[in-house]
Every structure is written in structure tokens, then in C-alpha cells.
Amino acid sequence: MKLTTAVLAAGAAVSLTTALVGAARLRQDTRHQAERNEAVLARNQLDWLAQMSTNPELAKLWAPEGTDVEEYMGLLKANQLICMLSLRDRLGFVRTGHLPWYAAKLMESDVCRRYWQRFGDLRAQEAEGDERADHFTRVLDQAAKNHLQAQLAAA
Fold first, then answer.
1. Whole-number mean pLDDT of the chain?
2. What is the spatial distance between Cα 141 and Cα 134, in angstroms, rounded to a whole number?
């Protein structure tokens, strides 16, 4: 092989490697940007829930018709807890297999169960088309059902 051919082949290999590394880096940057965007949106939602669940005047503006404002504020606080767990799960901070345990702990709370009974179907509709959100919703729904079954068995 001539020296010129070897230099061209080496240059092509370096260019190909650089292109592959660049493409991988772009995919990683895109994924990280999506995670940052999701975290910012979740922070906005959690801030809104924090305000709504602590300010009766604000909660009164948004409470569904026929719902007591204090009850609605409690339901919003439960939603805030569920949203925090959802964010932790989406960002990969809930270890594999631990989500059912966290969900069961949430469903030990009466207000979380009331929230789920009232808004669980809405959350399932919101999760449609998002595999991770759908899994999260199914796990919480199962935890609510398991808690109810345990209560019925104890009675």
C-alpha cells in the first residue's frame, strides 16, 4: 500500500470515528435537554400545586364545582406527592422494582387514596401513549387496589 493511500485510509477512519462520536454526543445532548425540559415543566407544576394546596383563596378559584376547598387543597397536596414520585421515576431515581413499594406507601395515606379514586382515571388518560407514564399509573392503580383489598380482608 502506498503511503498516500495509507494516509487517506487513516484520515477516513479518523473522520468516520469523529462523525460517530459526534452523532452519539448529539443524541446524548438531545436526551439531556429533554430531561432538563421535563424537570423544568415538573418544577412549574409542583410550584403551582404548592401554591394551590396552601392558599385557600387561590384553591377556591380552581376547585371543581361542589368540592369543599379544604378537601380540594388536600387532594392537591396528594397530587403534589404523586407528581414528585413520578418525576423521580421518570428521571431514573427510583430503582428498578421499587416503584410498587413507593406506590404502596403513598396509598397508605387516606388523602392519596381519595385523590386516586377521584382523579386516577384522568391520570390514566393523560398517560396514554407514554409508556413510562402508563406504567407509573398502572403501578399506582394496583397499589390503591391492593390497599382496598387489604382493608376488606382485615374487616
1. 89
2. 10
